[in-house]
Amino acid sequence: MVDVTAGRLVATAAHPTTVDTDVLDGVDALLKDAGPVEEVRCCSSAGGGLRLAVVGYEALVSAEAAHRVALSAGARVVHVAAGRLDPAGVAALKADRPDVLLLVGGTDGGDAEVLRHNAERLARSGPRVPVVVAGNADARDEVVARLHKLTVIATGNVLPRIGTLDPQPARAAIREVFLRHVIGGKRLSKGPRFARLVRAATPDAVLTGVEVLADDHEGDLLVVDVGGATTDVYSALTPDESVAVAGTLWRSRTVEGDLGVRWSAPGVVAAARAEKLPVDEARAEDLARGGHDGALGYAAVAATVAVRRHARSGRDLRDVRLVVGSGGVFRHASRARALGALEATVHDHAGGWALPRAPLITVDADYVLAPAGLLADDHRDAAAALLRAHLHVR
Q1: Of 292, 293, 289, 228, nearest to 258 (Cα)?
Q2: Which residues pair with 164 in a beta bridge?
Q3: 365, 328 Cβ separation under 8 angstroms
Q4: 159, exposed or middle or buried, with CB in 10 Å at 0-12, 13-18, 19+?
Q5: CATH no. for 50-181
Q6: DSSP states of 86-110 as a string?
Q7: Which residues neighbour 139 within 8 Å (Cβ) at sequence distance 6 or greater?
């Protein structure tokens, strides 16, 4: 509960999962205890998150650019295809069961033949899911016409020019698809109220919170969110004049679906072996069954591997001045132990990436990043004040 006039956190509460009944049962129980509130805003991972497939033109350019945009939108990318789709490619796409397709291809005014071909193939035999079209603007109307039997949202090209990445229109369109077409389809709640309350996918809300924090904070920042199934890394960096051919997303998110402290604990063991990091392998099965012993140690390894991967994808983290740890495993540990686990990540001298020089490290102990993201559109000052106060950042 937030006082948006003062940007003050009034109260927080939690409730056991109600996955066996209705997702709103827990929300309603909390609201009953909280008393009157003016407005309720929710974010949701929607029963496993938004499963998104990317169909692009050329793997090293438009497909890669679209993949980065999808991750920034809070989606879990389950399939990436590049080039002309053939029957085998369509079969592989359908086998990965996406909730949404992101169809891209070519710069504005460039070659649109592959984009047209893929639209035709998807219309004829692709998965029956909504399609976000974010490719060559000159071919947009024709592509939308070919996809007329599907739900289509057309938006700006993710790569209008070589070296120029424009993620925001596609990110907004993916969010719209998530809210209108995915939330209700997950059958998490009876009736339409849940869909009306949800404003964003949870990772998208967190990224918006990160963006608010970046705007309010001097210098680059890094957020590591360790969950039970995935570890997400968010970064907000100062733009560099030299950019890759697919463009650079200076505020971005990467998702490591094999790293987590519950269901993905065995993945942490496998990643630790590959990265030559020490981990107590005997704890993995107990954690996967819901145990707690050793979770913080697994979180430290998951965070280290995830940040290594994030940095190796072309992000220069040397100027990061603020590192924030998020996720229940950090929130429920003592502050000293949580900070110690994060210290191991930012002092990872064997990781092959350039370390931050002298970052401040803190923990999102009150879980304010996602709420700040939900408030950002119309209460941005309150969102910024909330983050400053609870992340201990001036």
Answers
A1: 228
A2: 161
A3: no
A4: buried
A5: 3.40.50.280
A6: -HHHHHHHHHT--SEEEE--S-TTS
A7: 106, 112, 115, 116
What is 219-363's CATH topology?
A: Nucleotidyltransferase; domain 5 (3.30.420)
Whose CA is closest to 76, among 158, 169, 174? 174
- Separation CA 144–CA 120 (nearest Å): 10
Cα-based distances in Å from 84 to 66, 118, 385: 16, 6, 49
What is the domain partition of the chain in residue ranges?
Answer: 50-181, 219-363
How buried is 208 (Cβ within 10 angstroms: 0-12 exposed, 13-18 middle, 19+ buried)?
buried
Q: How far is 180 from 146, CA to CA, in rounded Å?
A: 22
Please check whether residue 134 is in contact with residue 157, taking contact to mean a CB–CB distance below 8 angstroms.
yes
Q: Are 129 and 99 in contact (CB under 8 A)?
A: yes
User: pLDDT digit of tens for each residue in the chain (394 aa)?
Assistant: 999 999 999 988 888 888 788 888 999 999 988 888 999 999 887 656 678 899 998 876 766 767 777 766 667 788 989 899 999 999 999 999 998 999 998 889 988 999 999 999 999 999 999 999 999 999 999 999 999 889 999 999 988 888 787 878 888 898 788 777 767 666 778 878 888 888 888 888 888 999 899 888 888 999 999 988 889 899 888 876 555 545 555 677 777 878 889 888 999 999 999 999 999 888 888 888 888 888 999 999 999 999 999 998 778 899 999 999 999 999 999 999 999 999 999 999 998 888 998 899 999 999 999 999 999 999 999 999 999 999 876 6
Q: Whose structure tokens read 């053939």?
A: 86
Q: Distances in Å between the alpha carbon of 237 and those of 149, 218, 394?
A: 41, 11, 18
Euclidean distance between CA atoms 227 and 235, whole angstroms: 17
